[in-house]
Amino acid sequence: MEKTYHILVVDDHKDIRDLLQRFLCQHGLRVSTAADGEQLYQRMEKEHFDLLILDLMLPGKDGITLCREIRSQSHIPIIMLTALGEDIDRIIGLEVGADDYVPKPFNPRELLARIKSVLRRYFAIPNVDEQLSTSPIHYEFAHWHLNATTRELKDPSDTLVTLTSTEFTLLVAFLSHPHVVLSRDDLLRLVQGRGADVYDRAIDTLISRLRKKIEQDPKQPKLIKTIWGGGYQFSCEVSHG
User: Fold this and answer.
1) HSE (CB half, 13 Å, CA atoms) of 93?
2) Element (H, E) at 79
3) Residue 167 neighbours by CB distance under 10 Å
4) In angstroms, rounded to a whole number, what is the distance separating the alpha carbons of residues 127 and 124?
5) CATH 1.10.10.10 spans which residues of the chain?
6) CATH code given to domain 6-123
7) Which of 226, 207, 8 is nearest to 95 (CA)?
8) What is the dotted CATH code of the domain comprising 138-240?
9) 140 or 185: which carries more pLDDT confidence?
10) Separation of alpha carbons 128 and 63, rounded Å
11) How far is Cα 127 from Cα 137, in angstroms, rounded to an integer?
């Protein structure tokens, strides 16, 4: 990574904060730490961060609550850490806007790989073929507008709709391939990157999240249609430039 990215590690265990700070700094990242939500917000008011590593179990406001609050006002990538490893906890983390999820105990090298993967998705727009360097800057669909440079999505009433980095990447993939059936494998490679620990339910959760933001009736979607046995299809005309 050419840029020195600034990471904020939020965990109430000092040994974990110190371990991650040392390890990530050794691998070219700039790292700050916070012990709870209060310190997190104090840090974010004073400094710019490129990614948050957020523990699920925190004193005061827990990680789920903090993730939901931050996502309501910011696109910043978020990786959740937790000692809980059940699928339901992963799904909850994704539903409130986390970009990835790493259960404790974890190998710091795995976390580093996840960080790099999330940063690549956020700062360089991939597609299903893992390249979208020739993608247009602006997309128009069903009176919606997406600026791929600023990552701003506006609905037909010109209201700004916040997207997570994975939601943004997923939407760009659909807009770049209108009327094309994209399999779950295609979409999983897109949102998780090569070699990541992915599972089928993750993509369904992400699709559900995106539908809630762009569909008039998410239960009867007209834009992102489910193709039984095939995957998903963006069934709308798209203009771009």
Assistant:
1) 28
2) strand 78-82
3) 24
4) 10
5) 138-240
6) 3.40.50.2300
7) 207
8) 1.10.10.10
9) 140
10) 31
11) 14
| Angle of helix 200-214 versus helix 87-95 axis, rounded to 10 | 20
Alpha carbon 53 to its chain's center: 12
- Cβ atoms of 56 and 31 within 8 Å: the answer is no
Query: Within a 10 A sphere around the Cβ of 103, how many other Cβ atoms?
Result: 16
Residue 106 has pLDDT above 50, yes or no: yes
Q: Dump pLDDT digits (tens) for 188-206.
A: 766 654 334 444 557 888 8
Single-letter amino acid, residue 104: K
Calculate the CA dihedral of residues 147, 51, 89, 215 and round it to 10 degrees: -10
What's the pLDDT tens digit per position in 126-168?
Answer: 443 343 444 557 899 999 999 888 889 999 999 999 888 778 8
Structure tokens at 58: 């925190």
Looking up tokens 């762009």 gives 214
pTM: 0.58
CA–CA separation, 199 vs 169, rounded Å?
A: 18
Q: Taking a C-beta distance cutoff of 8 angstroms, is the pair 187, 121 a contact?
A: no
